[in-house]
Write a structure and sequence with these properties.
The protein has 936 residues and is of the alpha/beta class. 49% of the residues lie in helices and 11% in strands. A hairpin with a 3-residue loop joins strand 20 and strand 21.
Length: 936
């Protein structure tokens, strides 16, 4: 029961924040303290940043913004990073407020767009801001869900564009996952948006326990309580002052010692096995095999089921791996559902997929998909049809699906909490290489474990793999340093839109407000302090250098120039000597007798083969030494030039691998060299120039001896201080260069982008040209290529399938570098058009190099044929068979092709091309593409 003081505080809060009071009454549970703080700040007129763990309920603050807007008769936009999340949030809000008050805008769909509450993807809001859409009138609140997405390399800039360009009258609610620099992000929001309250919540709503599965046995990762299981416990302060070292020291004591022993024994056994074969009787009696340590996927699910740890999300960082896991579970006879659950699953699947064309069911793998669902097993990845993913999400949320094998894309915002999260591996393919997952990614993935209001505790399970290090896993589970880093960079489309709206100077100033520049400036603050400290120290050094006889800094600088001249002379002599040595080796011939100057083969030798010259290593002659050894020499053996002091005939049938022949030839060489003595005749190679032959060096030495300070009794003491002065001065100049490089970085990038646009006549001072206005309507990575193709009329005479094929080259990007480098292309005009597009891309890339920018990725032609066939009326089965694309990938790329085609139609104006582009959209938006307009 609450105390009187707590009751009074609640009463005062209700009086001061009546909207929060009404909002609380809508829920049958008590709001958390951080939710109340954020809602109260929003009602007080502040903007809010909420950073909280996955599953903590931060979206409730966004829903309060919706509640405020409706209560006050205002408008609220709720933005999300992905269409699936927009669809999910739309459904939630419709169920609460009704379809009349909620709209949806995702690029694919436009439902009730003038409603007081509109859910949309962030890109849609960015495009509305640039277009000056009338839908923005009356807008009072914008909720930016998953705002930490601004760190995304490909799309992150969109979030910053929105935050910078939203009118000041709009209050922004930013919802972020837990990041370690939330305060810094809040400071930036304060700079850009005005008064912003930062609400941090590090406490998980459900404690998370960490485990490792070795074979079929589940081990606790930590010896005691896991750090993630301490609900609300603050981190221990570091006694050493070094958090990283302290964390490592703590982990040594925290990690389950049994896991450490297993890891040590496992590594020792397999290391020994790799060195030499061992007899069976020599092996330890309880020696574990590799299969005992890494459990089968079906075994993992069975163990979780037996331990009442389902439902689970099982992360496998591979689409094929997810599909294979489902097949493995089916083949093992695994069944996780009751008869009543199976009946409900079949009903939902039939209902949600009723509109799918019957002829496409087979190629979509519908029957295997439905069978797996009926057993409580599913996959979830980007290659799946969106309709299938939505069925999985709905059934999992209802507790009917017990295990989902998923890629990491499932962790990005979709509301699918589980009791347990399994990580098969701690590394993933990032498109270029296999890399370890970061602490932030580990937290994001395992954050799904533990359903608020359902589970008392959540569980994270990592599977044992060869070379497993439990301390490294404990470090991932314990680390709380995952900062938010801006990926913002001005694009061509952004530049023309900004210049068209506010002019070049104002646009430049606005881009200086980006989070990227803010972070760069924050770093500059620390560097500036360092420069200030260094400058003060330099003044102190000057006092210690002062000499009563003259300017000692001038004298020290002269000494330094002499030293540098001597050092450079030595380097020059060394280089000259190396060049001379290399030239001397290249002159050697078979049968030459030489004396090797250095190395382990130093002494007399006979050249058996002069060797071929190598660009990297120089010549590599093969010789026979007096000790009967045949060696291949390198430049390391010749610090000085070598010359042949005679020749020796080598028998024609001499075999360097024959010991007897080597012995006989070495004896002949010894007899010959005994007459020459140890050192042989004097070398005819001249010595290179010495210090004494450098007139400029001699002149500086004379100036040094004539300087007044040369006779100072404290000269060497002054010189030591002067060396410190010069060293610190050099360091200070380096820091100042860093400051110059980091200051106005975004503005300088914008200037270079504008230079490209000026050269191509998209900009004319503070105005955009007709071509610039077309570019302002095209939102794609290859926006400038598309705009140039429009301007040069490349698309004008193409048919509907041909235009679809050409535009596909500007949309598609291969997931793997293994895709064909010479993909199949349609014959006729398409090939000519794509060749001209390639020429435009090459010309623009050359211009980018000249202007020192790099925005345009290469065109990818691997989707041109599938797009052509689909636009020509081919069936889904035919297109997928010919292209080897997953159904979900095909649908997603066609939808992106539709987006670009609609932009091209808009940019083309009242021309025949607009009609062709619209015909493309009509032709490719059919069958499975048009199914269920409410899905991604």
């Amino acid at each position: 029961m609450s105390s009187p003081s707590e009751k009074y505080a609640a009463f005062r809060s209700d009086q001061e924040h009546p909207a929060v009071k009404d909002f609380r009454a809508l829920y049958d549970f008590e709001l958390d303290e951080f939710q109340l703080r954020a809602c109260a700040a929003l009602e007080d007129g502040h903007q809010v940043l909420v950073a909280a763990p996955t599953g903590s309920g931060k979206t409730l603050v966004g829903e309060f913004a919706v509640h405020l807007a409706l209560e006050r008769g205002q408008k609220c936009f709720y933005t999300t990073p992905i269409k699936a999340l927009s669809n999910q949030k739309y459904s939630n809000l419709v169920s609460r407020y009704g379809p009349d008050k909620v709209g949806l805008l995702t690029g694919d769909n436009s439902v009730n767009s003038e409603a007081p509450i509109v859910v949309m993807t962030t890109e849609v809001l960015r495009n509305m801001l640039y277009a000056g859409s009338s839908t923005l009138l009356g807008l009072s609140y914008v909720v930016m869900d998953e705002v930490h997405y601004l760190a995304d390399r490909a799309r992150g800039a969109v979030w910053e564009e929105v935050l910078i360009h939203l009118p000041d009258s709009v209050s922004v609610v930013s919802l972020s996952a837990t990041v370690s620099n939330a305060e810094e992000f809040g400071d930036w929001l304060e700079t850009v948006r005005g008064n912003t309250v930062v609400v941090l919540e590090e406490k998980r709503p459900v404690p998370l326990f960490q485990h490792v599965m070795v074979g079929k046995r589940l081990h606790d990762l930590f010896a005691g309580e896991a750090p993630t299981a301490r609900v609300g416990a603050p981190a221990k302060p570091s006694k050493s002052g070094n958090p990283a070292k302290a964390a490592q020291a703590d982990l040594k004591d925290l990690v389950n010692p049994q896991l450490v022993r297993i890891a040590r024994d496992d590594n020792r056994i397999f290391r020994d096995d790799s060195r030499k074969p061992r007899r069976r009787r020599d092996l330890p009696r309880n020696r574990p095999s590799k299969t005992h340590f890494t459990p089968f996927r079906s075994d993992v699910v069975e163990e979780l089921d037996a331990g009442a740890l389902l439902p689970a999300i099982y992360f496998i960082f591979s689409r094929k791996g997810c599909e294979d896991a489902v097949v493995q579970c089916l083949r093992s006879g695994l069944r996780l559902t009751k008869p009543s659950e199976r009946d409900e699953i079949k009903r939902v699947v039939a209902e949600r997929t009723a509109d799918l064309p019957d002829e496409d069911l087979g190629v979509l793998g519908y029957h295997d998909f439905a069978e797996a669902l009926s057993r409580g097993i599913a996959a979830h990845h980007a290659g799946m049809l969106a309709a299938f993913k939505e069925v999985v999400e709905e059934l999992f949320a209802r507790g009917l699906i017990k295990v989902v094998f998923a890629t990491e894309t499932l962790a990005l915002g979709i509301n699918m909490p589980a009791r347990t999260v399994v990580l098969e591996k701690l590394s993933k393919w990032n498109g270029e290489a296999h890399v370890d997952i970061t602490p932030g990614e580990y937290t994001q993935l395992t954050g799904r474990a533990g359903r608020r209001g359902i589970d008392v505790e959540g569980h994270a399970v990592v599977l044992w793999q060869p070379g497993f290090d439990p301390r490294a896993v404990a470090g991932l589970a314990s680390t709380r340093t995952y900062p938010l880093r801006s990926s913002f960079a001005p694009s061509y489309n952004m530049a023309v839109n900004l210049v068209r709206q506010v002019g070049r100077t104002r646009a430049r100033d606005m881009l200086e407000l980006s989070f990227a520049q803010f972070q760069s400036d924050q770093a500059v603050v620390g560097l500036a302090r360092q420069v200030q400290r260094n400058t003060e120290a330099l003044e102190g050094y000057k006092e210690s250098i002062e000499c009563h006889l003259g300017d000692f800094l001038e004298y020290a600088a002269l000494r330094r120039r002499i030293s540098d001249r001597e050092a450079s002379g030595s380097k020059r002599r060394k280089l000259d000597r190396r060049v001379e040595a290399q030239e001397s080796i290249e002159k050697l011939k078979t049968g030459d007798i030489i004396r090797i100057p250095a190395g382990r083969s130093a002494g007399w030798a006979l050249v058996l083969d002069p060797g071929m010259r190598s660009e990297r290593e120089g010549p590599r002659p093969t010789v026979l030494t007096l000790d009967r050894t045949v060696r291949k020499l390198s430049m390391v053996d010749f610090p000085t030039p070598v010359e042949a002091i005679g020749t020796l005939r080598i028998p024609r049938k001499f075999n360097p691998r024959n010991p007897q022949q080597r012995r006989e030839l070495a004896q002949v060489l010894r007899n010959r060299t005994d007459l020459l003595g140890e050192d042989g005749p004097p070398s005819r190679h001249r010595d290179v120039i010495s210090h004494a032959d450098d007139p400029e060096l001699q002149e500086m030495r004379a100036q040094l001896r004539a300087h007044p300070c040369h006779g100072c009794s404290d000269r060497e003491d002054h010189a030591r201080w002067a060396e410190r002065y010069f060293r610190l001065d050099r360091e200070n100049r380096d820091v100042q260069r860093k400051i110059e490089q980091r200051t106005n970085t975004i503005a300088r990038q914008f200037d270079r982008v504008c230079q490209v646009l000026d050269a191509l006549h998209y900009l004319d001072g503070d105005k955009t040209t007709e071509a610039g206005d077309r570019l302002a309507r095209i939102y794609t990575e290859l926006d400038l290529v598309a705009a140039e193709c429009l301007r040069q009329g490349i698309f004008d005479d193409l048919t509907v399938p041909e235009l679809a094929s050409c535009l596909a080259a500007l949309v598609y990007e291969s997931r793997s570098k293994d895709e064909p480098t010479s993909p199949r292309l349609p014959r006729g005009d398409v090939r000519d058009a794509i060749e001209r597009m390639g020429s435009i891309w090459r010309e623009l890339s050359a211009l980018e190099r000249d202007m020192r920018v790099d925005f345009l990725r290469s065109m990818d032609l691997n989707f041109c044929w599938p797009a052509f066939r689909w636009a020509s009326g081919a069936s889904l089965a035919e297109v997928l068979y010919e292209s080897d694309l997953a159904a979900g990938d095909f649908v997603r790329w066609v939808k992106q092709l539709i987006d670009l085609t609609e932009q091209i139609a808009d940019a083309a104006g009242a021309t025949p091309l607009r009609a062709t582009a619209r015909a493309v959209v009509d032709q490719i938006r059919r069958g499975v593409i048009s199914y269920a307009s409410m899905v991604d």
